[in-house]
Design brief:
Number of strands: 12
Helix content: 40-55%
CATH topology of the largest domain: Rossmann fold
Mean pLDDT: 95
Largest sheet: 8 strands, mixed
Distance between the termini: 64 Å
Strand content: 5-15%
Order of helices and strands: HHHHHHHHHHEHEEEHEHEHEEHHEHEEE
Radius of gyration: 23 Å
Number of domains: 4
Shape: globular
Amino acid sequence: MSTEYYPLDARRAAFEVLQKVELGAYSDLALDTLLKRNRGTDPRDRALLTELVYGILRLRGRLDFALAQVSRQPFARLESAAQQLLRIGAYQLLELERIPVRAAVNETVELARKLDLERLAGLVNGTLRELDRKRDQLNWPPPEKVREYLEQVCSLPKWLAREIMSQLPNEGARSFGEALSQAAPMSLRINGLKTDAAGFKAALDGAGFQYRECGFAPEGLIIEQRGPGGIPGDEEGWYQVQDEASMLIAHLLDPQPGEKILDACAAPGGKTTHIAALTGNRARILALEKHPQRVRLLEQGAARNGCTCIEARQYDLEEFPDFLEIDSFDRVLVDAPCSGLGVLRRNPESRWTRQAAELKVLAELQLKILFNVAPLVKRGGILLYSVCTFSRAETTGVIETFLENHREFDLESFGGQVSDHWQALLDPSGALRSFPHQHDGMDAFFAVKLRRQA
């Protein structure tokens, strides 16, 4: 089936993106490719397409639970095309109040016909009408049944619901699950190398954007309503799209002008360019990345943001970097490859593609990287470990094992470094541990500071 649309049919495009994701594609890349091919599409159709793709992937568990209660055939046994059509219709019925019931049902039935899936039209019509009739009778689990609530209302797989429940009390687990089921805020970091806060805010005002300041990151803004056009200063590099939790990492690294800094797992470069901005381009930053194409991404980002102090280089830190001098870096950031459980709202298919067994494999990779960069840290220098996840295996588990094997490093609290306002972000050990339901809607991140003994 062709993916060339002009004008773009939002529902049909959503179906094909979802099918590609089912086969292993990344939703953001598949969606971006399609939207770039259809630049002349009405903004409302582009918005509906984006809403359908990300919303259905985020709430697939909830939609499937509802559909299973009204489907005459076992929903889990339906062919993939039927499931995707029903999810597209159910999402409109249950989550998009602005779309009338008649339109949600009829457009989905018509979509089946457009796709040459006439055999599914009756199934889609009957199931969606039954869902509309029985929407108030659906057997949703009450919040008191925490595991079922996390799985069926918050749309989380069983293993992930168990991981959350093992770390948070019942009320906290529910609140966290509810936050993960919602769309993530759109946050921007003002690039101080290219503009200032007053000038950028004035440009946003003039372009019809509504926004608020982030609760913790001083250069962060959250866009609450977009203007009719693009964000001002895109080509000029006035801003970087970056979650607030991610913005905290460069501040916690506390880079200083004149220092030699290693960003060990740098792509796509948001933290790297932030480090450069915080030092006013007066540090020496080496950014390493495993994949060559992502090194080019790093270089493009540095150029866009006006960062002149970054050297990007391809290297896989699963091997010791013998081309680098021992004891030579003042600060090393290891923003390690991880499960990404803390950014599920932004990468919604991950909740269905990740498996519990991967956490152990990822923890072993994270330790290997830490072991390989530890000798590069100067005596008295800082090794900062961060991940956009909350699993025990990848957070405290990794750090405990590292410290057992590297007695020359001490865990140092961020408490004496940050302002009183930031203390709410720290756990009892002084590590960063952010959660969207507790901290201004930001992603779930973990970070610790390890100081090498002098």
